[in-house]
Amino acid sequence: MTNPDVIAEGDFPSSRQVKTKYGVVEGRRLIHGVEKEVDAFQGIPFAKPPVEKLRFELPQPPESWEGVKATKAFALRSQQDIFPYEDPEFTKKYPVSEDSLYLNVFTPCWKSESEKGFPVLVYIHGGAFLIDSSIKYGDICICRNICRKDVVCVTIQYRLGLLGFMATGDDACPDNLALWDMTEALKWVKENIAQFNGDPDNVTIMGQSAGGVAVDLLSLSPHSRDLFTKYVAMAGNATCEFSIHEYMIEECRLKMEERGIIYKGDSKEFIKELRRLPADVFNIPAPTKLDRPNGRVQLSVGPRIDGKFFPKPLAELRNETKGKPHIVGMAGEEGLLTSMPPWTVESCRTLVQSNIAGLIKEKVSPTKVRKTRNDIIKMLVDIKKEESLDAWCRALVQSNGDVFCYIDTQKHVLERAEMGHEPCYFYSFDYYNPDMFGPLGEEMAYKGSTHCCDITYAFGTRILADFKFTELDQKITDLWSTLITNFVKYR
Fold this sequence. Notes:
Pfam families: COesterase. This protein has helices at residues 88-93, 140-145, 161-165, 177-192, 210-218, 248-258, 267-274, 314-320, 345-360, 369-380, 389-419, 453-459, 471-490; strands spanning 14-19, 24-31, 38-45, 68-70, 77-78, 96-97, 102-108, 118-124, 152-156, 198-208, 230-234, 326-331, 424-429.
């Protein structure tokens, strides 16, 4: 069920009309009748619908329109499979479509103290590059918790799954279409945000999980890095092992073969055949408990180094750029949400051993792997509690967090410090509400601050499940959103 504290329901006054490069838009005034009113413009196209002949093509600027376009509701979600833990009412209320390249602008109605306008925050959602949309992050909660702190906020959508990351390795299909979509949205912001009281020269992009990976990657590509000034990467960044998919070409062919479409050596004919298929053929289920043979979530699609969006290896791109001020971090127990094996001492012990062996195999000689692994396990599990299920569950959560993003994020921070370029700030988000997990909470070994907790309180939204905000929840939202908007405004 939609929470009215997150997504506005009912009648609201119309917003002011704004003239964009492509036509006039009119939204809703979601915060009204008070000193600081906020307008919301939802479902603004930033590219032509990527359908039919434009499927598997680079995004193109949208068509202009005559008259006033009503932008008073979220656009359809990008094509994706049903997430099994999602509220069925939400799934039914917000259907999916291949025509989904739209963004939302939430903007203060009062005059900025700066002649250039308000600083801008652009949010890119996560979801393993397979699921999610801008809708779940809300509208009225963003107006209340972000815009009323003197910031214009933009949330965007992009192509997901195989539609966003189809790869042929040649000119039959551009790689990294999802990243090109994000870049097109940032170009739209650069060209139009001044009309919404935003400063086009002070844009911060923020993403969580796969979105965190995306914003860090966008800071490196010469096609996107000059379109913003700062970024915030939550629970994911380009240093994380899962950020780049070396074998996307082979993976795409395999996934289409599973759907009865065989690659026969001609990429252009292959893509031509794919354009004739219904959009839902390209859906990929998000990983669930049954898809985790090693106890960890693994992404099945994602960006690759293609020679175009990324003309060089990431290390070279990072070295040739000065870098940007940014924040990176994660929840205190990221591995908790991604750890869903059978909760037994033996299964946890096996997975912990596998995790640690994988982390150290390239750092110690083969003859020392077992001893080093066992020494590390002793640091994670008190020898007096080696038969305790709780102790092994916590060790597994810690080691899964290490594999998922802890170690790579620490590496990212240390490398940025050594380069001595722009500042990099690090956070660990440790707050949670035990009621915020919904059905997922029944499968977790214990409750803690885990994946998605940080973004929940950044906007005051409800990501994993609907739950009642307490007074303390709102205080944490006020504190965390202030920290983020201060970075957007002042750094």
